[in-house]
Design brief:
Length: 287
C-alpha cells in the first residue's frame, strides 16, 4: 500500500489535471477505488475511461486491471466491516442481489480452478495421508470450513484433532505434543486470524507439515505454510463468501478418500450398519 501511495504522491506534481483527479481519488478513497471498473472510476472523478487506463500504464502497470489487483491485494486485510458494507452497497446498486451474489460465487470457483497450484494440492494430500496426527484450525467464519473438514476427516482417520479456541492459551495447550510426523491445517480469510497464524507458526517451528487454505499468496498464512491452497473469497462483502474454499476442501476430502479407498470402504460399511441399527437417517418408503 505504501509503495503504491508513494508512487501517487511522488508523481502528483507531474500528472496532468485529469490524472491528478484520479490520483487524489485513489489516495482518499482507495477502499472504494479498488473495486471500481475503469469506466466507473472515470465517471466518478469526471474523466474518460481511456484516461484511467493510460494513467495505470504510466504508473508502470500492464493496464488498469493490474493496478486494480494491486490495490485489492494491498488493502486485503485493511477493510473494516463498515467499509465492506459501504463498498458492497456501491457494487450492488439496484442490481438483482440473488443473481449478483450467485454469479460472483460461480466466478470465484472458476478463478480458483484456474489459479490453484496442483502441485501444492498433491503435496497437501500426500502429507495428510502420511500424517500421524492431523490438527485443524479455523476461527470465526472459517470455523464452518474447519468443522466441515474435521467432520469428514474424523470418518476417515482416527488421529484428527479439531482445535478449540475458547481461551488465549488453549490452542497452544492442544498443540503441546505436535511433532514432525504431524500435519497442521490452518484456514483463514480476510480479515486474517492472528490466533490461526500463531498456531501455524508454532506447529511449523516444531517440525510439522503445515497446510494453509487462504485467499492469496500475499496472505500471512502463505508465508509459513509448506503447502498453500488458494481459494478466492469475496473480501469486500460483510458476509464472507466460502463457496470456493468449501469446494477446495471438498476436493481435498475426495482426493484423500481415494488415497485410502480400501480402508474407507470398510469404514463406511461399519458406519452404514451403525446408522441402520440406531436409525440415524429417516428411511423413505418405496413407492
Amino acid at each position: 500500500m505504501n509503495d503504491l501511495m508513494g508512487k501517487l504522491q511522488s508523481n502528483l506534481t507531474k500528472f496532468s489535471k485529469s490524472q491528478k483527479q484520479i490520483a487524489r481519488y485513489i489516495m482518499e478513497h482507495y477502499d472504494k477505488a479498488a473495486f471500481m471498473t475503469a469506466s466507473r472510476l472515470g465517471q466518478t472523478v469526471g474523466v474518460s475511461e481511456s484516461t484511467v487506463v493510460r494513467f495505470a500504464t504510466e504508473l508502470g502497470y500492464d493496464g488498469y486491471p493490474h493496478l486494480q489487483r494491486a490495490l485489492q491485494e494491498m488493502i486485503r486485510n485493511k477493510l473494516t466491516a463498515v467499509q465492506r458494507m459501504e463498498v458492497m452497497g456501491d457494487r450492488m446498486g439496484g442490481r438483482d442481489i440473488l443473481q449478483s451474489v450467485l454469479t460472483t460465487d460461480a466466478d470465484k470457483i472458476r478463478m480458483t480452478l484456474d489459479e490453484l497450484d496442483r502441485e501444492a494440492f498433491r503435496g497437501a494430500v500426500e502429507a495428510i495421508l502420511r500424517a500421524r496426527r492431523i490438527y485443524i484450525l479455523g476461527v470465526r467464519s472459517s470455523g464452518a470450513l474447519a468443522n466441515f473438514l474435521g467432520f469428514y476427516f474424523s470418518l476417515l482417520f482416527e488421529n484428527v484433532r479439531m482445535l478449540q479456541t475458547n481461551g488465549v492459551s488453549e490452542v497452544f495447550e492442544q498443540l503441546l505434543h505436535v511433532e514432525p510426523e504431524d500435519v497442521f491445517i490452518g484456514i483463514s480469510f480476510p480479515r486474517y486470524s492472528k490466533r490461526t497464524l500463531s498456531a501455524m507458526k508454532y506447529s511449523k517451528g516444531h517440525g510439522a507439515q503445515v497446510v494453509a487454505l487462504t485467499d492469496s499468496r500475499l496472505s500471512p498464512l502463505a508465508g509459513c505454510a509448506d503447502h498453500v491452497l488458494i481459494a478466492k473469497s469475496d473480501m469486500v462483502s460483510f458476509v464472507d463468501s466460502l463457496v470456493a474454499p468449501l469446494s477446495v476442501l471438498n476436493a481435498l476430502i475426495v482426493a484423500v478418500g481415494i488415497g485410502k479407498k480400501a480402508e474407507i470402504e470398510q469404514t463406511f460399511e461399519r458406519l452404514e450398519n451403525i446408522w441402520d441399527e440406531y436409525e440415524v437417517y429417516e428411511k423413505l418408503e418405496d413407492g
